[in-house]
Amino acid sequence: MNSPTESAIESYRAGPDDTGHFGIYGGRFVAETLMPLILNVEKAYNQARQDPDFQAEFDYFAKHYIGRPSPLYHAARLSEHLGGPKIYFKRDELNHTGAHKINNTLGQILLARRMKKTRIIAETGAGQHGVATATVCALFDLPCVVYMGETDIERQAPNVFRMKLLGAEVVPVTSGTGTLKDAMNEALRDWVANVETTFYIIGTVAGPHPYPQMVREFQSVIGNETREQILEAENRLPDCLVACIGGGSNAMGLFHPFLDERDIRIIGVEAAGLGVETGKHAASITGGQPGVLHGNRTYLLQTDDGQIIDAHSISAGLDYPGIGPEHSWLNDTGRVQYVSVTDQEALDAFQLCCQTEGIIPALEPAHALAHVTKIASEFDNNQILIMNLCGRGDKDVFSVADALGETL
Amino acid sequence: MNSGSLTDTRITRKFAQLKKQNRKAFVAFLTGGDPDYDTSRSLVCGLPQAGVDLIEVGIPFSDPMADGPAIQASSQRALKAGMTLPKTLQLIRDFRKNDDSTPIVLMGYYNPIYRYGVDRFVHECTSSGVDGLIIVDLPPEEDKELCDPALTAGLHWIRLVTPSTDDSRIESVLHNVSGFVYYIAVLGVTGTRRAITDHIEIAVARLREYTDFPIAVGFGIKTPEHARSVAEKADGIVIGSAIVDLIKANLDNDGLPNSGIAETVHSYIREIADSVIQA
């Protein structure tokens, strides 16, 4: 593989190129039936991002509807407990709907409205992106169809009900293995058949160009705010950033504005499930190989024959067999370090966060926190580490109770 | 890249022969290894005898996102029975032992090929008797991946043209294409909606302004009558979902094929062929 060395790269923030590639990753690997749609989205998005009115509209709803900016909070007790750096949480779990997902669905639905689309579709795994999409569809009075694997529907019943309350139609997907990847296949099929009317809101920094770039830009509100907030609080930039990664949108949103500050150590935490060595995991970079799926080249969980393998994680939001293509590139270039954390380690960190900070985190950022506990001793107490607390854990209390052997 | 050199191949000879006979081409699709290797081999090997002019063999993939439920299910049956990309190539080699003239095109998705290795794949295709490729998720924007190496090796590159392919796109879509052009008559995935013949006539006429290659029309064709009426408007027709559905209908509850499966499938295909021949 041709990986450019770190010193040869002028900026880590310049990608993708105009064909949507980050090095060998990304691209537009889709059927001809989808190409004209994707080119239309790209064209509309490029116009929108140059338009101050579009940005103003995004900012208005981000502030008054989502509740941005989210606080940057000094987790003093946790910092003291771990005895390492000064730990800050970027509290995107305080957003309306309880996670970072809505930053992106807001941006995309505003784009869909500009494109005069009258129907929205989305895929969802854990249901968080489905809820965030159903929410903005209710807000803007657009019909919403959410594709969700049958297996996921069973284990995420509260989110299925939330989506229904918000007026969305949840379509069970039985094809393939009935999980997130199949839901994405099914949403793509719907899109192909309903080109004229429909906009597809993808939930993460994956899919064909321009989605990885577009979702990153909507989520970069996280990193841009963090930068201002840490400068205000500490008058300097952090030493380390940590975020969990399924597809990788919360991580990309936090990381991207800091990529060219090369002294900042940046770490993405994948879900190791029962352990990467067991094969039951969702760590695409740690335990996968490059391949092509869902419109982009990226690291994938797959067999030697190139068949996609189902991911496993206690956190349904990390349970995807791929990862955003920009992360794959950041891995190969060495700019971002990718590590993994098991279900058990995440559960331990989940409880630690509850007990030391009075915050019930989602299982996804509990993975990030688990890694923070591992590396805390590498820092001294005047260094600063920022972790993206990208979702709250109300949705996870049943699966955590189950894992801890409690009956509710 | 120049695809003009592929002028004397099984595909060009077949279409030239059909033209001379004033006949339309019948293209049949099935997934390699569905429902298992041996049955699939009998099915494929009997196609020319049943009246098929050109065979498309699907490379099974776990996530065939441009295909409808019928072909997805056939892909899963094949994978479950242990089918792989190397075994799909073996299937073509087995077919070629007794048939050196019927053109065979492999249809599939890029990931299994990418994992296998592009150079190795292209080499194995030519040596096993594959004539062309239809790789669904490689648009012209990604031609460097596989299209260019395939053309260099002497394989035809066949691309799908769809109702959403507008004038601004059609030239780039047809660039590098040879052998024939595959027109998808409906918006959507395979096998889900019926193609409308009026629309086909207009679309084929538009395509003729851009290409001299034969135009085969597919997606949504099931009955002999429909096959004939579509064939009248184009140079050939493609049937896939209806065939794999018939395979499915001839499996028992454990997914094992009934003893007469090949005869049943071949007799359906014979009906289609007899109808197409009147077009």
Summarize the structure.
The complex is a heterodimer of chains A (408) and B (279). By secondary structure, chain A is an alpha/beta fold.
Description:
- The complex is a heterodimer of chains A (408) and B (279).
- With 408 residues, chain A is of the alpha/beta class.
- Chain A contains 16 helices and 14 strands.
- Chain A has helices spanning 35-49, 52-66, 76-82, 101-114, 128-140, 150-155, 157-165, 180-193, 211-219, 221-234, 249-255, 284-287, 325-333, 343-357, 363-375, 397-403, and strands at residues 21-22, 25-29, 72-74, 86-90, 119-124, 144-149, 169-173, 198-201, 240-244, 265-273, 289-293, 295-300, 337-342, 384-388.
- Chain A has a six-stranded mixed β-sheet, with helices on both faces.
- In chain A, α4 (101-114) packs across α5 (128-140) and α9 crosses α11 (249-255).
- Chain A starts with 20 loop residues before the first strand and ends in a 5-residue tail after the last helix.
- At the A-B interface, β2, α1, α8, β11 and β12 of A face α3, α5 and β6 of B.
